[in-house]
Model the fold of this input.
Amino acid sequence: MEISLIFKIAAVGILVTILNQILKHSGREEHAFLISLAGLVLVLTWILPYIYDLFIMIQDLFNI
Done:
């Protein structure tokens, strides 16, 4: 796993948190929820290949 991926995830987390707080204080809870959901989906699409590789590695380990 690359260190840049961890920094990207942290940046998305910080940005989503700030936007979430701004939207909640302005009374737009629905938009805040959608921003949180979009951030989660974005991070999951970045992490999904690593999770897939982990499952393949575990499967190869137990097939020996």
